[in-house]
Design brief:
This protein has 4 helices and 9 strands. The protein is of the alpha/beta class and 239 residues long. Among the domains are: 55 residues; 67 residues, Chitinase A, domain 3. The strands form 3 sheets. Strands 7-6-5-9-8 form a 5-stranded mixed β-sheet. A two-stranded antiparallel sheet has the order 1-2. A two-stranded parallel ribbon has the order 3-4. Strand 5 and strand 6 form a beta hairpin.
């Protein structure tokens, strides 16, 4: 063994030393060099110096390779498939039916049609500017309404403003009384302007046809689904 503090070269080779074995015959521990003794030489290695690389690998070994897990990739769905799904889910709205009756409108009704078409064009442009983020269902409804109201605007026949108080015309305001003397006031307008909740009655409806052409004091038959009823014209006012 090297003494403490002794420098050992990194290239040092093992040294071999001999030791004298005791005689196996006499057991007296005589030297193996004495006559008549049997000797056995044992080989014992000296200090072994191993070098380790700075990387921690043994000489001759390949450097260890760090294995990194694959980078996380977020699953994404192609926008093309999303658009196809949205298109498949879009329900085609029911087309508005265009009646065969003449499209008579008041001057006010014509202005409302023009404003309605302009608004629909504006709303459609806003959705179209959104591109892939546009509401496909809303787009389909806007296009349906544009087809209808554009056609109605082209076929509109503007009637003369009602000025008579002696005869009911399209645009006239009429007050009438039913058989129970209950009075009601309505105005005859075009089909697209009609709104019963506001007292705007389509001139081609059963009530409109009963009132059209009537004069104050006349009794006319209002043919209703719930049953016919006589009504009396009380008053006629211009539009």
């Amino acid at each position: 063994m090297p003494k403490a503090g002794t420098m050992v070269s990194a290239n040092a080779r093992p040294c071999w030393r001999t030791r004298t074995a005791t005689s196996i015959e006499s057991g007296t521990g005589t030297s193996a060099s004495e006559p008549g003794s049997r000797k056995r030489t044992a080989m014992r290695p000296g200090p072994i110096v191993r070098r380790r690389s700075l990387s921690g690998n043994r000489p001759g070994e390949k450097p260890a390779t760090m294995v990194h897990p694959p980078p996380f990739k977020e699953k994404t769905v192609s926008r093309a498939f999303v658009n196809e799904d949205q298109a498949a889910q879009t329900e085609q709205p029911v087309e508005r039916q265009i009646s065969a009756q003449p499209n008579y409108v008041t001057p006010q009704g014509l202005a409302e049609l023009q404003a309605r078409v302009a608004l629909l064009h504006s709303q459609h442009s806003e959705q179209n500017d959104l591109g892939d983020d546009a509401d496909k269902q809303r787009m389909a409804e806007l296009e349906r309404d544009l087809r209808y109201f554009t056609q109605r605007l082209h076929s509109a026949q503007v009637v003369t403003t009602a000025t008579s108080t002696d005869k009911v015309q399209i645009g006239s305001r009429v007050t009438f009384a039913d058989e129970q003397d209950r009075q009601q006031s309505v105005q005859l307008v075009g089909e697209d302007q009609a709104d019963a909740a506001k007292g705007l009655i389509n001139w081609a409806s059963p009530l409109g046809r009963a009132l059209l052409g009537a004069q104050p004091g006349d009794e006319v038959l209002w043919q209703r689904p719930a049953g016919n009823q006589l009504i009396e014209i009380i008053r006629i006012e211009p539009a």
